[in-house]
Amino acid sequence: MKLLSQLILCLALLLASSTSLKADDGFRGKTGFDIKGFKSNFQTDIGWLVGGRWGGYFGTSQVYMGLAAYFGAPTGLSVTKEKMYYGGLTLGVDANLTKSSVFEASLLLGYGEGQMSRIGVSERSHYVVEPGLGLGFNLGGGWRLSLAGSYLHMANAKNFSGPTFGFRFQFRSTASRKPAGD
Questions:
Q1: Percent of residues in the chain assigned helix, strand, coil, to nearest 5
Q2: Which residues pair with 91 in a beta bridge?
Q3: 175 confidence band (pLDDT: 50, 70, 90)
């Protein structure tokens, strides 16, 4: 279990220092901020999660890889009474639907933990999987607003697994510099 955490840390450091995410001498990346609702089971209220994403595209493709982290309250109470967090590596793809809209598919693999003190539940998951889909609308200037849905699965933590839904505000840089001599 500790080995997986160390592996994720090593992969994150490799990603952060990778030059393979460069395209034509210009970095194309995406940075985003998410606001999500979360529903772990039918007996609980809707919770909330906030988090961020950072990633870079591979070459000139629409495939990206990055990091994501989320924090929140699984049933909507104060974070002093309950909390959950998770994060990890993301892999995804964007596909243009029209000039102003895009379809997104992504997968997060990582680590998570949660605690609900009012019912005495504290669970930790060394394996988190979150496949997700989104529909984004370009706002101009590289900004996009996406409606996103996913299913968060924390192995061995059923009280912290369930569907998520929400908004993602993201900025996609398309920087590309001409090489010297052109």
A1: 10, 60, 30
A2: 65, 107
A3: low
